[in-house]
Amino acid sequence: xxxxxxxxxxxxxxxxxxxxxxxxxxxxxxxxxxxxxxxxxxxxxxxxxxxxxxxxxxxxxxxxxxxxxxxxxxxxxxxxxxxxxxxxxxxxxxxxxxxxxxxxxxxxxxxxxxxxxxxxxxxxxxxxxxxxxxxxxxxxxxxxx
Length: 145
Fold this sequence. Notes:
single chain; alpha/beta; Rossmann fold; 7 strands; Universal_stress_UspA; Rossmann-like_a/b/a_fold
């Protein structure tokens, strides 16, 4: 069985990324290990009194993101592909690479967003960083087209 790590960010490109990952998993008899990396500073805000931390904002955001992950997982499973998911907070590249190692991933499937810079227009900055740092293949699905 092929182990596929699928980082998701809940952006507009998530639908295309999910479709491509499911097709790839079907073609390779794969299992998807979906991960969402939330920023460490979700509950922080800057105001007149400087930085303030609002734990209820962070808790609500994490709950919402877990609901979204559960919904995506159910959609993948409904299409006949085994899937599990994880939500972590921190630096995305490092966490994704650690998760891929932990799951003995054969591939990381990433989307290209087409945001900034010539290379980033076609690939995306996190995707670019992962392709440079990963010891396993990174399959890039164009999501901006």
